[in-house]
Design brief:
408 residues; alpha+beta; 13 helices; 10 strands
Length: 408
């Protein structure tokens, strides 16, 4: 029998039982919509993480005091966390050839006060190079300079959130004096807003000041919390880490093969790989859950096709008695199963796109529909129709014509 005739017969059979066909397709619709939505959420989250890390600087390197872990995983002593000094920063700034920008860091949290207004924030003691490392820009005023660092000047640059909280009336913050732990700081600049990152942290709720000022006037310490640097490019991150390790081991007089590093180096590249790995695992888990709906939908198609074969046993017998071959009967029921599966897939794709649009609009989640997820859904739908429709179709094709005509 010609394929066109088989297709028409299958379409008429589906049209004759519209409600039953739709309920059969419902499992496929839900499964496909779930697959597309889950993949969109996973890929959107991954893209958002990558975007935020790139904004922070994908070539960033963090140098922290203390070894990666104490012996046997024990907590390290306080002295082990004071291994980074100003001389280490100066050594890296002068001799590290694979480093584009570098800044020491010390920090302290507390209330910033201006007049009757106050706001909690974190004071970061850094150098001028911190702007390049973190890819920050001064929108109003200017950044403090190396002379301010040398003199331990009481100046600062504030983030947009701090500016809005302390100056709610829209007053220009530049030149004003705020207090932090009874120490006055003159505002010399306001940073350009960067908004919230993927982890929900406000990147504008910060205050930058010369590291020498924070170390001497606020914390009264001689060690650094950490050193932040950026490699020449992301490609050279590993080479930069090796160079920094060599310089710090020499500075700390650590013996090769005997003494372990008393510092820890991490990079944004490692963080990105870790986050991508986590996002991939979560996407895979969500995808597996969504695929269960496809399997349930396939089983529903198989059940309905068995019912259809039983209901149309006499029709099958008549067709075979007038010359229809077994392959024609098999093709007829197989086409019917695949049509229901693919139609359910198309409706599922539309529902999946509507759901992802709703998630973006109302929940403000980052989503990203992948073309390959749509193609995968269609491929799975076709496979589901063939796989779960084959056995009922085969059963119909193997019916004895005489027995089929006699069937009541």
């Amino acid at each position: 029998m010609h394929f066109t005739n088989l297709l028409k017969i299958a379409l008429r059979a589906i049209a004759a039982n519209k409600l039953r066909a739709f309920l059969t397709m419902l499992g496929i619709i839900i499964g496909v919509a779930s697959v597309i939505t889950m993949i969109a959420i996973g890929e959107g989250s991954k893209a958002s993480i990558q975007s935020n890390i790139s904004q922070m600087g994908s070539n960033m390197i963090y140098i922290n005091p203390g070894a990666d872990r104490g012996p046997g995983g024990a907590r390290q002593e306080a002295s082990a966390m004071q291994t980074l000094k100003i001389k280490d920063y100066e050594l890296l700034a002068n001799e590290a050839k694979m480093v584009k920008a570098i800044s020491p860091m010390v920090q302290s949290g507390g209330q910033f006060i201006y007049g009757n207004n106050n706001t909690p924030s974190t004071l970061y003691g850094v150098s001028v190079g911190y702007l390049d490392v973190r890819q920050l820009q001064v929108e109003e005023g200017e950044m403090f300079d190396d002379e301010d660092v040398r003199l331990s000047a009481k100046v600062c640059v504030i983030g947009r959130t701090v500016a809005n909280e302390l100056f709610p009336g829209g007053e220009d913050p530049v030149g004003k004096v705020v207090r932090f732990k009874s120490i006055p700081f003159r505002i010399v600049g306001v940073l350009k807003s960067k908004g919230y990152n993927t982890f929900g942290m406000d990147q504008d709720n910060l205050v930058l000041a010369p590291y020498s000022t924070v170390m001497k006037r606020i914390l009264a310490v001689t060690h650094l919390s950490n050193i932040t640097a950026s490699a020449l490019t992301e490609t050279y991150t590993d080479e930069a880490i090796e160079e920094i390790t060599t310089l710090l081991r020499r500075s700390h007089k650590l013996r090769a093969g005997i003494d372990e590093d008393n510092f820890t180096i991490r990079s944004q590249k490692e963080m990105m790989e870790m986050m991508n790995s986590t996002a991939n695992v979560m996407t895979t888990l969500l995808l597996c859950v969504a695929c269960i709906s496809l399997i349930v939908g396939g089983i529903g198609i198989m059940n309905i096709m068995f019912v259809s074969v039983t209901e149309r046993t006499k029709e099958i017998g008549l067709r075979m008695s007038v010359g229809a071959r077994g392959i024609d009967i098999l093709s007829q029921f197989l086409i019917e199963a695949v049509l229901m599966s693919i139609t359910g897939g198309i409706i599922g794709v539309l529902f999946g796109m509507l759901i992802t649009y709703g998630i973006t609009t109302f929940a403000q989640w980052p989503v990203q529909i992948q073309p390959w997820s749509v193609m995968l859904s269609f491929a799975v739908c076709t496979f589901t129709g063939i796989f779960f429709g084959w056995y009922p179709a085969k059963k119909a094709a193997n019916l004895d014509p005489i027995e089929a005509i006699r069937y009541e």
